[in-house]
Specification:
With 354 residues, this protein is an alpha/beta fold. Helix content is 43%, strand content 15%. The radius of gyration is 20 Å and the shape is globular. The structure holds nicotinamide-adenine-dinucleotide.
Length: 354
């Protein structure tokens, strides 16, 4: 492994572990950024990285992001993340997942894992054969919290968009408000449905064009081609696909007063938050607005540890606090002239004692 502690993203991680299991062929990295507020919680990504250093960087950035996200969500959890280094064919076997479960178990509860890109609920069930330090497992009953975090993430983003519309446009409802959504998967699709229910005007886009077109037709919205969605003239642009879309070129194309969506790491680099602010665009920091999923995952885990049934209303109550946090950030940003992403980072760093 390269000298990961010299990486700019190292940021004084408490623990970084390379996991290799010869029998199953598993290679993984577990990164624990901070356990100041509790066990480091964050999902496992299964991805084919061109170079090992890309995997290390991804693990470090994502793990620090989870420290900030969990702190700002008011959860008694720290930040961690794991990446499993897939081969070019994406070979994933139960043996590998179980070996990964053994490694998570070896940390004795300092790291709690769940789903991320490339990892399904079924995969987490395989991991749970070897460790209890896992969440995002199937739940039974409509009132039980847990399982797929996507709908909870969408719920938080919906509340966050409403808060942004109120803050920037002075409107109490999204009825008639035009929202352009990039990515109509688990999160973006859920956001679109919630907005449509309240009468928003939608423009939907996805690289799986049929998916976006079908949803647009179901919800009475328009379709935009993937290379056109960032230039749509709208009230809210909601990125729910990839990260790093807010770079010089992407920001120059925007024709919106608000950016509020769930994709992780939307800003290509930190200075882009300031460029958005100077263009008069209100930005909802991604890890604050998209915390609904981790709130569900963490509540599921904590309830299980205490042997309590997890009430979905408690999860909803915590998700409903997201708009208040965003307003606090925007007010502080307006008062200080510091962009909302930097305000959020400073608040999070204070909470985790950095
Ligand atoms: P998903 O795979 O279900 O959906 C993503 C969608 O984006 C897919 O339909 C894909 O085709 C589309 N897409 C990819 N590139 C695109 C592009 N250039 N233009 C338009 N569409 C494109 O994933 P998801 O779970 O909905 O997650 C979406 C984003 O939200 C990711 O950045 C993820 O990291 C973030 N996020 C998800 C959760 C969660 O609970 N699922 C929680 C927090 C953050």
């Amino acid at each position: 492994m390269t000298a990961f502690w010299t990486e700019p993203d190292f940021d004084e991680h408490e623990h970084v572990q390379l996991v290799h299991d010869r029998k199953s062929g598993l290679t993984a990295i577990i990164a624990l950024h901070s356990t100041h507020l509790g066990p480091g919680a964050g999902g496992t990504r299964f991805w084919h990285y061109p170079e090992p250093k890309d995997a290390i960087r991804d693990a470090l950035r994502l793990s620090r992001g989870m420290s900030y996200k969990n702190a700002m969500a008011g959860l008694p959890m720290g930040g961690g993340k794991a990446v499993i280094l897939a081969d070019a064919k994406g070979t994933k076997t139960p043996d590998m997942l179980e070996a990964f479960g053994d490694a998570v178990n070896g940390l004795g509860g300092r790291y709690v894992t769940a789903e991320d890109v490339g990892i399904s609920v079924e995969d987490m069930v395989a991991v749970s054969q070897r460790t209890d330090f896992v969440s995002g497992l199937p739940v039974s009953g409509e009132d039980a919290a847990g399982g797929n975090p996507g709908p909870f993430t969408a719920m938080g983003i919906f509340h966050g968009i409403k808060a942004a519309v109120k803050y920037k446009l002075g409107k109490d409802s999204v009825s008639g408000v035009h929202v352009a959504i990039q990515g109509t998967g688990s999160v973006g699709g859920g956001v679109a449905r919630l907005l449509a229910h309240e009468g928003a005007k939608l423009t939907l886009s996805d690289i799986h064009e049929d998916r976006a077109k079908a949803l647009a037709s179901e919800l009475g919205g328009e379709f935009a081609a993937p290379d056109a969605v960032m230039s749509v003239s709208c009230d809210v642009f909601s990125p729910n696909a990839l990260g790093a879309i807010l770079d010089d070129e992407g920001i120059a194309r925007l024709d919106t007063p608000i950016v509020a969506g769930g994709a992780n790491n939307q800003l290509a680099r930190q200075g882009h938050g300031d460029i958005l602010a100077r263009r008069g665009i209100l930005y909802a920091p991604d890890y604050v607005i998209n915390a609904g999923g981790i709130i569900s995952v963490a509540m599921e885990y904590l309830c299980k540890r205490h042997g309590d049934p997890c009430d979905i209303n408690e999860v909803r109550k915590r998700i409903a606090l997201i708009p208040g946090r965003l307003e606090e950030i925007w007010q502080e940003s307006d008062a200080s002239g510091v962009s909302p992403d930097v305000v959020a980072d400073r608040m999070a760093q204070k909470l985790i004692g950095r």
